Amino acid sequence: VLILTGILLQRVSAGLARYQARLRRQENLVAMGRMTAGIAHEIRNPLGIIRGAGEHLQTVLQREGIQDPVAAFIPEEVDRLDRILRGYLSFGTDAPVEARPFDLRSALRKGAALLEKELARAGVEIQHPEPGDPILVLGDALRLRQVVLNLLLNARDALNGPGTIQLEIRRQGRQVRVVARDTGPGLGDGDPESLFEPFRTTKEKGSGLGLAMSRRCIEEMGGTLTLRNNPRGQGAEAIILLPVHE
User: Fold this and answer.
1) Is the pLDDT assigned to residue 107 strictly greater than 70?
2) Which of 117, 120, 226, 236 has the fewest CB atoms found within 10 Å of its own CB?
3) DSSP state of 174
4) Domain 2-90 is of which CATH architecture?
């Protein structure tokens, strides 16, 4: 009887701990919603002005016969920033996602291209996947690109100096597997799942929301995002699994 009572108490205690963790997470989401609602409007107004200026710059350059691909990034990146803001606002809600088929291989390549020069200045090399046929998934391409940026920036911060980030993409039946692998010190002995908790960060200037929002984005696409130490050597791996759209 004592043994059964002990087992029952352990289960009750574990259940209470899970409930308290969910409650803390919900409180964090409420606090974040109040904070972002107050600043989103002020940020989105100048973003619209920047977007208009970027489009005007493109028009002027085209009129002069100048082809500058960097100028085309301005409106596109403003749109991405606007999506990020909306993501913060909807993080604690069940807001619908604009799901459309897109090429995951292309989104991965474009996301990495945005950071390639910045990472190179820090001595970090991105090893890109081998070229291949398009792999269609269903979701929001710009939000997926933000996930790629988050994972690359996390890997850069983990390296804290020169190193390598290897990107892989491979179709596995009805799923596609994306891996971002770095040559840093790894995740340590802690529980990798704790890194997905909102507002939890090991960085001095981190918000603690990048991984939480990235996981939510992937889950809204019907997939999973996990972290682990590299089982074959040094560093850590971020692994995305998504259903292929056919």
Assistant:
1) yes
2) 117
3) T
4) Orthogonal Bundle (1.10)
